Each structure stands twice: as structure tokens, then as C-alpha cells.
Amino acid sequence: MDADAVLAAWEAGKSRKTLLGYGWDLAQFARWRGTTRDAAVAWFLGLGAGEAHEAALGYLRAMQDQGLAPATVQRRLSALRSLVKAARLIGMVSWALELPAPKVIPFRDTRGPGRAGFHALVVAAEAQEDPFRARNLAILWLLYGRGLRRGEAVGLGFPEDVDLAGSRVRVLGKHRQEREWATIPPACVRALVRWMEVRGDEAGPLFFRLDRAAHYGPVLEPLTGLAVADMVRGLGDRTGQRVRPHGLRHAGITDVLDATHGDFRKAQRFGRLKSANVLRFYDDNREDAGGEAARLIAP
After folding, report:
1. In this structure, what are the phi and psi dihedrals at residue 12, rounded to the nearest 5 degrees?
2. Distances (CA, A) of 28 to 62, 69, 186, 223
3. Is 298 a domain residue?
4. What torsion, rounded to 10 degrees, do the Cα atoms 41, 45, 50, 52 define?
5. pTM
6. 122 vs 139, 173, 187, 191, CA distance in Å?
7. DSSP bridge partners of 182
8. Is 250 within 8 Å of 278 (Cβ atoms)?
9. Strand, helix or coil at 152?
10. Which of 232, 211, 230, 233 is nearest to 222 (CA)?
11. Is residue 97 situated within a structural domain?
């Protein structure tokens, strides 16, 4: 089995963000096998249809035994399905991977840390030393104040994706093929101005690594989504909160619904959501409509 040919076909047409996510998922599959990614791919695609499904079911059981969230399990299986689809496309295999997808409960908790929790994170970031302070504050405000996903934030480049005079950034959104400009509020602008004063005007990623292990040279190393997660988690620990980057986006969307008295259209535009339907989960969690109804019949 030519793993290189399959991986080349698999990578074709995928965005950098998708490749990073699926690449991580394939790395976890290889880790389960106790081998390299290429070796794991060659082994898996070299199996017959029945053996491959048996192996995939074993991987599924192993992930469930680890207690991984259904959404994580589903995403890792999707990476395998995508790999098999690419192999089938170029004639390497004749079968498709068919496994029951774990049921995912959408938006179980959409409230995030709340406005008070977010401002506690800001205070903790303010206590850091520059350049970490300026960089981390700018990221926090983009995640909450404009509802950016962590991948969208670290994907910003300078100067092409930043227009501070126009109060906007150019974002490559989820499932989007092209970047679009998103207006940012004054607090985000102030945080970015502060970061740019520290960062300088060198072209490259807007946010880059500042740790000692980073390579300082002609090419700046972009910050990763995992690094943002570690940063947010660390600030959360300092403030007695369990916080993740997407929780800040959730908090921003929820606070927009509060500030606009439930205006789904504005909240949809703020979060750059394809459909306003998902906002009902935010609205239900925000108002606890179920709990209110229960109190009406059982006071």
C-alpha cells in the first residue's frame, strides 16, 4: 500500500485548517496503533473490508474506554472515513468505512464563563508581563468580543488581515473557502493596537510564539490553536474557572442575545453562523426556559 499516494490524494482540496485537525486525528490513530502515521495508514488500508471495520470498531471501543467526548470520537472517525474515501477515489481500496456515529448532544452548555468570568480572565492577563500580556489580551478580546474561534484567531495574518483604521479583521470562517471582513468593537481595536505596539510591523502571522523554544528568525512561528487553549486554560486556573477558547465564543454570543433581548439575527451575524437555528440552544440555556416551565407547574 502506497501511503504517500493516498495521503497526497487525501490532502488535495482540503483547507489548511481541515488538514491540521484531521492530521492530529490521524496522529491519534497512529498512536493507538503504536506506530508512525504512514505505517498506520498503510496497515489500515491494506486490510480487507471486514478486517478494516473490525479494526475501526476496536479503535472506537478504545476511545470510548478512555472516556473521550462523543464529538471527539466522531471527529476522529470522520478523519478515517475521509482517508478511506480518498483511497477509494484513486483505486487503492474498493470499500467504504461505515460505522455508527456516536450521538452528539449539541450545545450542552453554551453560556461559557459569562461576562464576569471573562473579565476575570482579562484581569489575570493584565497581570502578565509584556509581550505575553498584550498578545493574550488581544486574543481574549477577539474570542469573546467578536466571537472568533481559536483557529480563526491564530489564522490571521499581518498586514493583509488587519485593518485597524476600519475596525475590522479578515477571517477565514468555519467551512468557508474565502476570507471575509468582520467588524470588531472598540475594546478589540484597543487590545489589537496595544499588541501591535509591542509586536511591531513585521509581516507574518498576527499572533506568534513567544516562548523560549520558538525559532526567532526571518520567519515568525504562528501560534497554534492548542497554544491558545493552553493559554485560556491557564488563565482560567488562576481565576478558579474551567475555561476553554470556545467557551469565550459561547459567552460572547450569549451576551449578545442578552444585550439585544434575544435578537437572533444580530446574534447570527455576530457569530457568523450559517443558520440561526442553532441559536435556540443558546437562547434556551440563557433563559432556562425548561426550568421556568417546571416551576410554573411545581412551585
Report:
1. -60, 130
2. 11, 15, 41, 21
3. no
4. 10
5. 0.69
6. 10, 25, 12, 11
7. 169
8. no
9. helix
10. 211
11. no
